[in-house]
Amino acid sequence: MLRGNSLQRRYLWAFLRHNPHQCQSCTRGSHYPEGIQPGAITDSPNHWGDSQPLRLSPKKTQKIKPLKKIAQTDAIFENVFRENQTADENPNSLRLSIDTKAKAKVKIGNLSRGGKARGLEAKIADHHDTEWQSLLVPFGILNTNNDQLSIYFGQSAETSDFIVDCLSDWWEQHQADYGDMNEWVIDLDGGSAARSDRTQFIKRMVELAQHTQLRIRLIYYPPYHSQYNPIERCWATLENYWNGAILDSVETALQWAANMR
User: Fold this and answer.
1) Same domain, yes or no, for 31 and 143?
2) Same domain, 16 and 90
3) Do 40 and 158 fall within a single domain?
4) Overall pTM > 0.70
5) Domain limit, last residue, from 16, 36, 61
6) Rg of the chain in Å (alpha carbons)
7) Number of folded domains in the chain?
């Protein structure tokens, strides 16, 4: 016979059938928790071997689905379209689309990327991809005027400084081609390093505007709709281009990215 704490522990997984003779004021079954049926439990604490499983099928834990559209989504899209159209019609305005692939960092090592490569013999990659030499963070700048794409690779985390440093370098390389430009219109999403409320990012962008003497306008796509940012299609092209390659060094990754068409 179970007594004291032992009996209490057994109550954690089985409930005694209510005896109507012990409590005439209760209706039969009124003491059973929701979802527990009388036929699935034992008659008394002396017949534990007679207890039957509750036969409840396991249920997968469901996660709360993220919000895919906020109330202002349509209004934000209207603003994006209007501002982009105005920039495209202005000969002194240059529209850029920028983005990083922080969530899909490039692993450098003798690793398979799941693609296929042309050759007489199949390439041999490591059996496991648990070890790699380094991680690269791609950052892209797409010139929407001529569809020219520039890709930078960083070896640190995605930061506001990394993004602005890339923009600054890009302007130094291309400034001579845009002598008449006095404005940048930059399409971007609200990533963690480039949010409009990210103090360091806004601070660095103000400094960049002062240094270049350009007016810079940031055009944010609505939350959960970054796929509409023009540069997003470039990442899919890059992944399809080099998914059959083994990027075993930083130089190899840079060469593959440079040869993408």
Assistant:
1) no
2) no
3) no
4) no
5) 61
6) 31
7) 2
> Would you state the pLDDT for residue 38?
47
Strand 93-100 relative to strand 134-143: parallel, antiparallel, unpaired? antiparallel
| Dihedral of alpha carbons 202, 208, 211, 217, sign | negative
State the Cα–Cα distance between residues 178 and 237, nearest whole angstrom: 27
* Amino acid, res. 186: I
Q: Facing residues of 97 across strands?
A: 142, 187
Residue 203 counted as domain residue = yes
Q: Are residues 5 and 45 in the same domain?
A: yes
CA nearest 101: which of 30, 166, 180? 166
Helix (H, G, I), strand (E, B) or coil at 87: helix
CA atoms within 13 A on the CB side of 178: 21
Q: Are strands 134-143 and 106-108 parallel, antiparallel or unpaired?
A: antiparallel
Q: Is residue 66 part of a domain?
A: no
Q: Helix, strand, or coil here: 242?
A: helix
Which pairs with CB-CB distance under 8 Å and at least 24 residues apart come from 33-37? none
Euclidean distance between the first and the last CA atom of the chain, given in angstroms as a whole number: 79
Q: What is the pLDDT of residues 202-244, one digit of tens each?
A: 999 999 999 999 999 999 999 989 999 999 988 888 888 777 7
Residue 68 lies in a domain: no
Is 77 found in the same domain as 24?
no
The domain in which residue 33 lies consists of 1-61
Provide the pLDDT for residue 8. Answer: 43
Backbone angles phi, psi at 73, to 5 degrees: -55, -50
